[in-house]
Fold this sequence. Notes:
By secondary structure, this protein is an alpha/beta fold. Helices cover 40% and strands 15% of the residues.
Amino acid sequence: MTRHLQDTTTLHNGVKMPWLGLGVFKVEEGPELVNAVKTAIKHGYRSIDTASIYGNEEGVGQGIREGIKEAGITRDELFVTSKVWNADLGYESTIAAFETSLKKLGLEKLDLYLIHWPVEGKYKEAWKALETLYKEGKVRAIGVSNFQVHHLEDLMKEAEIKPMINQVELHPRLTQEEVRAFCAKHHIQVEAWSPLMQGQLLDNEELKQIANKYQKSIAQVIIRWDLQTGIVTIPKSTKENRIIENAAVFDFELTEEDMKTINALNQNLRVGPDPDHFDF
C-alpha cells in the first residue's frame, strides 16, 4: 500500500518511479511554471512530467535546478519524464528530439522517455531509437503513451525491450480496464494523465458523497483511487494549495465498496483524442 508521497513502484527493469508526480500539460513558460515545479519539489514531490509539445521544457528545467537547490536534495532524487512528439517519430529524428529535450531541460539524462502517440507506421522506428538511448544509458526507462492493446501487441512483436510504462488518459469515466489488464500481464506500469478529467469530475455527486465521508476533496479521492488501483498518477496544478492538497492522500484508505462505486462510474468517455483516431 502506498503510504508516502515519495513511495515508488519498481518498473520491470528495476528502476523505481514515484507513484505520484506533477504534470505540467499546457503550462506556459514563465514564472508560474518555474514556481509550480519548485513548489512541488519543496512539498516533497519527486516526479515531474513534461513533453516536447508542451513547449515548456526550459522552464521545467529551471524549476528543477532551483527546486533541488532550495530543497537541499540531489538531481538523482528526482524522476523526470519527457516525450517525443509525433512530427519527430523516426529513428534519427527521435534521437535528435531527445537531445533537444535534454538540452532544454538542462539535464545530463532523463529518467523516462515516452513515445507520445502511436502514429501508425512511425512508432516502431521511434522505439528502436528509445532502445538505443536506453542501452547508451541516456535514459533510465523507456515507454509509450496513449497506446491501446493492439498498438502494444504490434510494437512488442519486434521490440527488443518491452515498454516499462504506458501513460494513458485514465480517470473514473475512462477506467481503461482492457489496457490495464494487458499491461499487468506484461509487467508494464500504467500511468494516468488527466486523472481528474480536466476538472469535469469535481462536481460529481457520487464522488462528493465519498469525499464527504473521508473529509477529503473529490480530487483527493480520485488520486487515492488511482494509487489503490496500482496506477501512477500525475495531476496538474500550478497553485501551491492544490499542489499540497493533491499530495495529501496518504492518511486515508478507500474501502472496497467505495472503490467499486468509483469503478462503476466508467463510461469510456475521453477528454483527449482517441488513440485510434487522431490527426496531429
